Amino acid sequence: MRQAFYNQIEKIALGDKNVFILTANLGFKFFDSIRKNCSEQFIDVGVAEANMIGLSAGLALSGKNVYCYSIIPFLTMRAYEQIRIDVAYHNLNVKLVGMGAGFTYGLEGYTHFGIEDMALMRAMPHMHVVSPDTIENAVKIAELSYAYPHPLYIRLGRAGVKNRYGQNFNLTIGKGLLLQEGKDVAIFAIGNMVAPALQAVDFLKNKGISATFVNMHTLKPLDVELIKQCAAGHKAIFSVEEHSIIGGLGSAISETLAECSYGGIFKRIGIPEVLNHKIIGHADYLWQAYGLTAEQIGLGIVEAVKGR
Predict the structure, then answer these.
(1) pLDDT one-digit tens code per residue, 151-164
(2) Which of 75, 102, 158, 264 has the smallest count of CB within 10 Å of its CB?
């Protein structure tokens, strides 16, 4: 996914010398082409994420269109103060590209997990947050980000996820993709969880539950109207995310539902606040351990609906 994203950014940079790509000592192989073809627009700052953000702010104030890359916890946490003060506060034209959503770097352990980042970024003034689910959507986000007028956090996940929409769909930052309409429950998923949550829709169908499904690729600005629309027509709503259940998609949706006095069932499906530190492994293994497979998502929804 990141390779496809930066292939598109390279195409943009070749036509616009004001586009700058920064990295903090990461991405050696997939930046080879950018380093060769856009050498004067590429900066590796070394192991210095905070400095990378300060440099990006200076470049943006000089009229540059800046992309900063690192692994999610190093980007969003190590440089949090600099992002807050240098970029978000001043509403600068800086795109923060974080790799490793959720358990993508499963074997590297907790230091590399990206499970609190959306909560951190959505709290920032002016900062907008997107998380594409497919290679094609990552490319589309790259295209849209070029002219996007706000600081933007782009959360990238697992590689190799293929398009599931066909050719005719319109991805717009701030507008959820309504992929399927049903009458009983509504499911909102983001990023890596779109694929298993969509599979859960078929599981639910076999259980006699008709589901509306939304790819909520943008966490901020949140598509409040679509959430209200689903609240008006469904007795139960579920959020699915590879992120802590605190502060991410589920929290954002619950805030909207509370403010519109939704009286139905709402449940967050995601990563618990406290992890089992005895469990380590690839992302698929961790999905199973924390209830994020398609069947587990489906069973959780069935239990919530039938148990009402």
Answers:
(1) 999 999 976 566 66
(2) 264
Across the strands, what pairs with 152? Answer: 95, 128
- Residue pair 190/216 in contact by the 8 Å Cβ criterion: yes
Degrees to nearest 5, angle at CA 103 with 108 and 255: 140
Residue 123 structure tokens: 């709290």
CA dist 237 and 305 (Å) reads: 10
In which residue are the tokens 């990023």 written? Answer: 191
**Can you spell out the DSSP letters for 142-167?**
HHHHHT--S-EEEEE--TTPPP-S-S
The verdict on whether omega for the bond into residue 221 sits within 30 degrees of 0, i.e. cis, is yes
Rounded to two decimals, the pTM is 0.96
Cβ atoms of residues 74 and 83 within 8 Å: no
8-state DSSP, 274: S
For residues 137 and 199, give the distance between their C-alpha atoms in angstroms, rounded to a whole number. Answer: 19
User: Taking the mean position of all CA atoms in its chain, how far away is CA 230?
Assistant: 21
Distance from C-alpha of 138 to C-alpha of 156, rounded to nearest angstrom? 8
The per-residue pLDDT for range 163-172, each reduced to its tens digit, is: 666 555 689 9
Hey, what are 37's tokens? 């073809």
Mean pLDDT of 17-45: 94
Instruction: Give every CB contact of residue 108 below 8 A, 6+ residues apart in sequence.
Output: none
Q: Write the pLDDT tens digit of every residue in 118-140.
A: 999 999 999 999 999 999 999 99
- Asked if 114 and 154 touch (Cβ cutoff 8 Å), the reply is no
What's phi and psi for 130, nearest 5 deg? -130, 150
Cα torsion through 61, 6, 96, 51, rounded to 10: -70
CA-nearest of 209, 212, 232, 231 to 303 is 209
